[in-house]
């Protein structure tokens, strides 16, 4: 049922920009909800789906609050690093330069965190994370 609710959230986000905060609050509640009755892998998969919905919200204009929230999760270790890695990869897939100063200020600490992005980077730095860091001045 969370998947269906999240899809409704996408529709609301697409068609009603004034409700972005409401949709985002709902997604945060789902993300933070305890899923103790599920196995750990199932919990991760549910949270990945919720992150995908957050990235969709980012794509329709609710950029900074979504990035700030995931950075908060990283800084406070309140989410599995694999989830933040998934978020970083998805953000790099849907964004492109030029990046706003605010976006850089919020996303660069995630991008530069080796625990999060080391596995997303390649040796010749042709990957999107390395290119983003280079764009930001290293």
Describe the structure.
By secondary structure, this protein is mostly helical. It is built from eight helices and no strands. It has helices at residues 2-15, 20-32, 40-59, 63-75, 81-94, 101-112, 114-117, 128-135. α1 packs parallel to α3, α3 (40-59) packs parallel to α5 and α4 (63-75) packs parallel to α6 (101-112). The model has no long low-confidence stretch (mean pLDDT 88).
Number of helices: 8
**How many β strands by DSSP?**
0
How much of the sequence is in beta strands?
under 5%
In the predicted model, the low-confidence regions spanning at least 5 consecutive residues are: none
Q: Portion of residues in helices?
A: over 70%
Mean pLDDT: 88
Main pleated sheet: none
| SSE-based structural type | mainly alpha
What is the straight-line distance between the termini? 43 Å
SSE inventory with pairings:
Blueprint: H1 2-15, H2 20-32, H3 40-59, H4 63-75, H5 81-94, H6 101-112, H7 114-117, H8 128-135
Helix pairs in contact: 1-2, 1-3, 2-3, 3-4, 3-5, 4-6
Concise overview:
The protein is mostly helical.
What labels would you give this structure?
8 helices, globular, 138 residues
